[in-house]
Amino acid sequence: MAQVKSLAQSLYPCSSQRLEHQMKLQILKNSSVTCNDGTPAGYYIKESRGSRRWLVFLEGGWYCFSKHTCDSRYESMRRLMSSSNWPPTRTGTGILSPQPEENPHWWNANTVFVPYCSSDVWSGSTPKTDQRGHQGALN
Q1: How far apart are CA 129 and CA 87, in angstroms?
Q2: What is the pTM of this model?
């Protein structure tokens, strides 16, 4: 693994500087972009100065489609419906890892991790409420 790290650092000019390993939370100020429970949405970012490559990762997490399924989801998977317990930083793993041994192709890219908290399969939402009282995605 030391050979991989040495090779990776020799190939990229930005590798000689100290790279930030933590992705920092950025909460969105646009009040119309929220999680299911009304908390603000956001993203984590790690900039790699000198790199022109970007990796944007949208977290998955399934969906809910009615008041009943959303209430059940909130009880069992609250982290996928709220930003209230998001930590201020995250360490990337796998393809988001800043370690060349773990991620030899993208370790020094600028990375963005977008947590999933809207239960809409990344399709957006509507301000209208359906006949059953459910506000959600236009599917």
Answers
A1: 32
A2: 0.75
